[in-house]
Specification:
The protein has 3 domains: 33 residues, no CATH class; 70 residues, no CATH class; 56 residues, no CATH class. The strands form 3 sheets. The chain has a two-stranded antiparallel sheet with strand order 1-2. A two-stranded antiparallel ribbon has the order 3-4. The chain is extended, with a radius of gyration of 28 Å. The protein starts with 12 loop residues before the first strand and ends with a helix. The protein contains 5 helices and 6 strands. β5 and β6 form a beta hairpin. It is mostly helical.
């Protein structure tokens, strides 16, 4: 790869020697400036049905069982208990959730087994580990879509979700009711507008 030395945006690059597949070529990781709309999103989450989700629930239940809620005689006692509950959720979330980068190339069916199989192949660089890696991907992909089809066909019976051209229609854009050129942003303002409008018609 030839790089323009005068362009600082393309000079931040790294050769990923351990990330090549059966080819004798290696990947080149280059950090360049991109449009803000294409910046990857980093979020924390817990995969549904995973071992982490089970541990997350067990951790919260165990912590809740140790909280003393018998002596709540004042507002400060209630606030203290609520702070303890909030801390339990924060601790459990940081302990069992993981940070993931969401890009346009992210796959919903990718799971921990796929990651472990890929790491094993990258470590050995052997075709004996390449075939199990591909089999793991096929199995994970099939299991994911079978579960999705079962949910659509049996659970919620929304078979039209399988077709992109009959998705649920998004709600139309709304705007606040205005009275005297001012938006009614509260129930009192809305009632006052209704009351004034009714009286004006009556009179």
């Amino acid at each position: 790869m030839f790089i323009n030395l005068q362009n600082s945006g393309f000079n931040n690059h790294t050769i990923l020697q351990k990330k090549y597949l059966p080819s004798d070529h290696v990947l080149l990781y280059a950090g360049i400036q991109i449009d803000p709309s294409n910046i990857d999103i980093v979020r924390r989450g817990i995969k549904k049905g995973s071992e982490e989700e089970i541990k997350f629930d067990s951790f919260i239940l165990n912590k809740f069982s140790n909280l003393n809620s018998d002596l709540l005689t004042s507002r400060d006692d209630i606030k203290t208990l609520m702070n303890c509950i909030s801390c339990v959720f924060d601790e459990a979330w940081l302990k069992f959730s993981r940070e993931s980068t969401i890009t346009k190339h992210s796959k919903e069916w990718w799971n921990k087994e796929c990651s472990n199989s890929l790491v094993k192949y990258h470590t050995s660089r052997s075709l004996e580990d390449w075939k199990p890696y591909k089999n793991t991907i096929c199995y994970s992909k099939n299991a994911f879509f079978e579960e999705k089809i079962h949910k659509i066909a049996i659970t919620n019976k929304r078979s039209w979700d399988l077709m992109n051209w009959v998705k649920c229609k998004p709600l139309s854009a709304t705007e606040a009711i205005k009275f005297n050129n001012l938006p009614c942003t509260s129930l009192d303002m809305l009632w006052q507008a209704l009351y004034s409008t009714y009286n004006s018609v009556t009179n």
